[in-house]
Amino acid sequence: MMSGFACMFFQDPSILQFQRRMEDERKKSNMQTFFGVERIPGDTQMREVIDGIREDAMRPVFREFLLRLQKTGCLQQFKFHDDSYLCSVDATQYFSSETVHCSRCLTKMHRDGITGYSHSVLQPAIVHPRMRQVVPMMPEEILNSDGMEKQDCEINAGKRLIPKIRKEHPQLKLTIAGDALYSTKPFIDLLAANRMHYILGVKPDRHKVMFRWIDAYGSLKEKRFTDRKGKIHLYEWSNGVPLNGGSYDDRVNFIRFRILDPRGKKASYTGSWITDFEVT
Q1: How many helices (H) and strands (E) would you count in the chain?
Q2: Does residue 133 come out as left (phi exceeding 0), alpha (psi in the -120 to 50 range) or beta?
Q3: Which residues contact 133 (CB under 8 A, 6 or more apart)?
Q4: Over the stretch 112-152, which tens digit does the pLDDT of each residue have?
């Protein structure tokens, strides 16, 4: 297991190249000093051992890592807003093949009729705009299990992930950051039930009702400034915007940011978000 971690730590592109580099005596010394590895395993042995370990076996490692950062005060520098930590959540694919697959693979039919097989995880990490480092938390596998009628997906993994994070860190104040996929009332209700704030992306084609309401009744407040290149940075916001049909149960606070040309007509960038924080 430590050899597998070392392969990632040293950023080798393959296990074979990792093993060749480890033949150097100095690298062997590093393996012993840093990772406690006396003998480097062969790639077959490495795969057989690691493939047989369930992903949940890693959960205590991530929890202990975060707890140590808390106890030593190192996590304080990641505090984001309202005494909470910003936890970014996004999916990443770590395996893809058109021939090698297993029963838990996600599948996708390509246009040429060939089936693609893949494995992905939903990766949460505590981040901060002014910090280059991130603090990874235990990822949630996106995979098909026995008895599943529908293929697993990112949003379902998110619904499993949030209660697990709260169970492992019951007192940690978190603000979840995610893309427009998560900007739904069921997921926002799940965050509220687990005492988490949110900053989530929204898109006009995915949240048509909300954007129509903003166009008709939004009365957005705005703030703008011009940078040294003459481009206009336009911030717009409104609190209490209906996410779906206008009921008071689904009101959110809306932010839009655009970078406009010097004439203020053409946008080179547009981003929109919703949050439960009051926007001022």
Answers
A1: 8, 12
A2: beta
A3: none
A4: 889 999 999 999 999 999 999 999 999 999 988 876 678 99
Task: Write the single-letter amino acid at 26.
Answer: R
Closest CA to 164 of 136, 135, 139: 139
Q: Which residues of 173-204 are buried (b: 16+ CB within 10 A; e: fewer)?
A: ebbbbbbbbbbbeebbebbeebebbbbbbbbe
Structure tokens, 266: 């053409």
pTM beyond cutoff 0.85: yes
CB 189 within 8 A of CB 182: no
Classify burial at 97, counting beta carbons within 10 Å of its beta carbon; exposed 0-12, middle 13-18, buried 19 or more.
Answer: exposed
Q: Is 241 strand, coil or helix?
A: strand
Overall residue count recorded for the chain in this entry: 280
